[in-house]
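Fold Annotation — chain and its backbone
Encoding — discrete vocabulary of local shapes
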Amino acid sequence: MNAGPILLLSLIADMSKRFVVPVYQRPYSWEEEQCEQLWNDVLTVGRHAQGTHFTGSVVWIQDGTMGADGMTSAFIIDGQQRITTVNLLLAALADYSRNHGNQANGLQFSYEELIGTGYLVNPYRKGEGHYRLCLSQGDHDTYKSIIDHLEDPRVQITEESRRLVDNLKWFRDRLANLEDPNSVWAGLRRLEVVSISLTQGQDNPQVIFESMNSTGKDLSTADLVRNYVLMGQSIEAQEGLYQHHWRKIEEALGVDRYDDVFDDFLYDWLAVINAPRPVVAKKVYRFFKEYVTENGYGEGDQIIELIDQMCKFAGYYSLITANSEGDSEVNQLLNRIEALNITVTNPLLMALLDDYQEGDSFLSRDDLLHMLKLVESYLFRRIVCRISSTGLNKFFLSVIASLRRIRDDGSSDYRQAFEAALLGNGETSHRMMPDDRQFKEALLSRDFYPFTRCYYMLATLENRHHPKDPIDFSSGNYTIEHILPQNALARKEWRQMLGPDCEKIFPDHINKLGNLTLTAYNSELSDASFEEKKHRIIGGYENEYLTISSELHEAKTWDAQSIDARTDRLVKEALEVWPKPKIDPATIDKYKSDRQESIPAKTVTLRMLGASGLLKPGDRLGSLSRKYEANAVITEKMLIRVSNGHEFDSPSPAASYVLKLAGASSSSINGWKFWGREGTSLDDFRSRYLVSKGDMDSLDRSTVRAMFWDGFADFCAARDEFTAAFGSAFAKADHTRYYLSFGSSIPGCNLSALIGMRDKYTTVEFLFHDPAQYANFLEYKSKVESDFSSREGDLDWDDKDVDKKSRHLTLTRRTDYKQDQWDDIYRWLADALLKMKSVSKYVR
């Protein structure tokens, strides 16, 4: 690697190299903000008599081979946005000088100089070698046409890359209004960069690329991932890898929206893979690299398999978020779920689609439709009942992990397990699915006009009556209509219809479900009387064809009784459209106990075992079952190939398949325990892998407690309000116990935190040794409970006459001590301790 300062124009005009933007680089993305920064920098340095302006670095690597045009390419690793924008400014200057008479009008630059001396073109080369800069992807043709137009104005500029065209125009407009364009030329000539040239086969361009902190527009995760995947390949392989594989991801996500959605897609895909361990949004790139490394995708041709896997999930993501082509009934349900705008469901939906699309016997089409309907009902019932979505992301990840375990074990009903996962959390309020009574009460009592999902609700209720030919409500033609208008009390006809209690009836009924419908003629109906609305020739209620408005055909009046009757009818239909499945409590308890078994912090795959060296291609597997014999081999791609040639990416589907061939009455089986190598089960290999990775379940509880309290000490040390309240003395305590004491400034009192990892609780305790002092404190019970009203958890008081030495006030919440949830526990615990300390002001 060689690095040194150089004037940017000297680097650009160096005829010994031709700069090429590789296929793995992001498209040109600078916008007006970045162009304006460059413009201001150029003018600032250009208006001074001397000095240079440093604008960052340009990292490039020489191909080392000469092309058919006699040119050697220099591939830009970092700095392509800056070089491209400077070239646009040079093109604008050349165009300006040609139109303003060059030096004859006092210009210090000329069209001939900019075109003929190597800044923009090589006048001695034709074809691709003629252009001093070659862009990639959708920018290539547009940039070439800009240069061609500069040399021959008869050539039209193609507008495939709007940013290139818009930024060129921006520079042209600025030059046209500038009093002294020479300052731009002077400034450009004094821009300085650090030129970093890498040596092919010696320097690692990816490491250097990630460490760069150049000015301009920050790289997205999409940029980093694409570069990581493609940059590590040989230069000659990059083009084919991009065109035949990576491009399919862009097409699956939608080329026109790829830049906007890739980061979200990547996050959701990694969430599926890592479930139940959540992916930290700010560390997505790190998670991606870990996945590549742990599964051995960075070796040989395995990167193709990685890209193809990503492409498959990109298709699922597009199906969920963009209404891409597919099964119409599945699409309809996915569109309705998408309309609820709770994106934390996306990983779960992707996991379900993957199990279904793979043709897995665990999930049929009917099962998929049933489960998608359940997801929609689960979400909508919670929204109507005003249950917060906080924590749902982790909950859905736990569902993914549970279903994956059930699939691997092959011992349970997949669909039934899914129902139990959603319906078996009634004891946890933030995860519960409201029952029919709760849902009905909310539907009857809620003001629905300000409800953000009101349109979705009315449209879904209507399309219940058109299952084979649903109405397209996405066109924007329909809006929400108040049958009893919002301005009804201003009209005598409506006041008479509502009766003498109209002032009370109106606010109680105006936004009720029964008073709302959909219409394409909202402005025409407006505040008219009921008779006028009903008999209107266009859009009138007599001619209304929507089933949800059927009452309006024959209605003579529209009063409180009419609204209540229609509300009752729509609520009854809503209970059918968004049902809560009936499932035996014993079945829920069965899956509850299953969930309480340890779920690995990270899903272990055959690829992981291969990358760790525990398994390798060519290893022969055999059945450990006494009843069924079977043989298989691990392939180069870390798949299980059974004796007839069929291949599987997981042990359980492979085991189920051979059991079917053997005529077994049931093919449900745990493939990790069915298959073994030299008598050792794959489950044992998986356990060895988890222990080698420091899996928390392999450690004794006192060690886990010490890790928990140490982490809590570090967490609190970064919170000024906590250290101000408690200091840091607790950090020196014995961290192997189930509790920590935080003392108290009040004699006879103590504040403690308790963790129950086995019984799954976290508690903050305010202890009183003096019963009389506690009795005085009880006089402020209502104020204390008001202070804690916003705190999650159950507040419990000891009876003042309880037969024990001390009295306690405790705040407790149910807690799952999976390590990926510790930050959430720390946050709750710290806030609860601070709140408990604050109520000590009531102690007298």
